[in-house]
Amino acid sequence: MELSGKMIPCGSREAVVTVLSYSNGIMDGYLQHPRLDGREKIQSLSQMVLLLNSLVDLEDCPNCSLPLVSREQEADGKHSVFRIQVLFREHYSWQGRLIWQNENQEIVFRSVIELIQLFDEILGE
Predict the structure, then answer these.
(1) Number of other residues whose CB lies within 10 A of the CB of residue 27
(2) Residue 16 near residue 35, CB atoms below 8 Å
(3) pTM of the model
């Protein structure tokens, strides 16, 4: 993972996750965030959480407003695209929103465990 050194406004707490395939917690996809140069490959839910946590750590501002991240849509509909918005965080107690762009659904989560469970429920179907 290479983090860009560019100046990003405080509040870049939104990431876009594109899932190419998923089976029993094994994910093939990528995560995009304003602090990353391009896409970061992800292969599991835990890897996604750890990467997102390290990106939020860089913010050093506990209760920031929501940022804007480009909303890349997959035209062929074969991929699942999610936006993860971390609204509040204290250690691994996160609160935020998971937005499933393909289905135009928004789900609130109250912890990292709940976020992982949401991904597993949605993608396991």
Answers:
(1) 24
(2) no
(3) 0.73
Task: With beta carbons less than 8 A apart as the criterion, state whether 70 and 83 touch.
Answer: no
Distance CA 67, CA 56 (A): 12
Per-residue pLDDT at 60: 57
Element holding 97 (H helix, E strand)? strand 93-100
How do the domains of the chain map onto residue ranges?
Answer: 14-124
pLDDT at 4: 46
Angle at the Cα of 120 from the Cα atoms of 116 and 11, rounded to 5 degrees: 40
Kindly tell me the burial class for residue 12, based on how many C-beta atoms sit within 10 Å of its own C-beta (0-12, 13-18, 19 or more): buried
Q: What is the pLDDT of residue 91?
A: 66
87, 62 contact by CB (below 8 A): no
Structure tokens belonging to residue 90 = 């204290």
Share of the chain above pLDDT 90, in %: 38
Instruction: Give 77-98 pLDDT, tens digit per residue.
Output: 678 999 999 888 876 688 899 9
